[in-house]
Amino acid sequence: MTTSTPLLLITADPSHPLAHLALRYARAYLQNASIDTNSEADNNSAIKKPVLNIFFYAEAAHTANRLRWQSADQTNLTQEWQNLAAQYQLSLPVCVSTALSRGISDTDNSARHQLNGDNLAAGFHLVGLSELAMMMQGDCRLLQF
User: Fold this and answer.
1) HSE-CB for 59 with a 13 A CA cutoff
2) Which of 31, 85, 90, 140 is deepest in the core (most CB within 10 A)?
3) Does residue 95 have an active-site annotation?
4) Which helix (DSSP H) or strand (DSSP E) does residue 79 occupy?
5) Per-residue pLDDT tens for 8-35?
6) How do the domains of the chain map onto residue ranges?
7) What CA–CA distances, in Å, run from 48 to 6, 73, 89?
8) What's the gap between Cα 83 and its chain centre?
9) CATH 3.40.50.11540, domain 5-144, yes or no
10) Phi, psi values for residue 5, rounded to 5°
């Protein structure tokens, strides 16, 4: 039986409670999917990686800013997403137009648009909206935070 692939469309600014909820949801989903996947692997002798699509859009693009400072008493969402992505080999795509309009750029776009430097956090990458459209094709369960 196949299940739909969740797509987390994160639009909330990193300071908003919904942005933190999105991270908690992703963690819980991936931990649960890993347990289920490992149980199935015992029967099938093949380990499958849990699948979760993530897309940062609108104000959530601020999450990808490596220069965003966070006080010690607050969760650093940028680092937490980077850690989760490394642990589960996740892609962290960010809408390029919403990122650029919020002052967040990678090296290529900084050169293309003659900007002074880049500030995209490691592990995140800028993509067009076509990436989101492709994630939404087929059997997709969209959750917006």
Assistant:
1) 11
2) 90
3) yes
4) helix 77-88
5) 999 999 999 999 999 999 999 999 987 7
6) 5-144
7) 16, 37, 12
8) 11
9) no
10) -85, 120
Checking 77-83 for CB contacts under 8 A at 24+ apart, the result is 77/14, 77/19, 77/20, 77/23, 78/14, 78/121, 80/23, 81/23, 81/123, 81/124, 82/121, 82/122, 82/123, 82/124
Nearest to 4 by CA among 145, 138, 134: 138
* In contact, 10 and 54? CB cutoff 8 Å: yes
Residue 1: name the closest of 36, 29, 49 by CA.
36
pLDDT, mean over the chain: 90
> Could you tell me the two tokens for 61?
């693009």
The residue annotated as part of the active site, out of 95, 120, 121, 127, is: 95
Strands 124-127 and 92-95, by their bridges, are: parallel
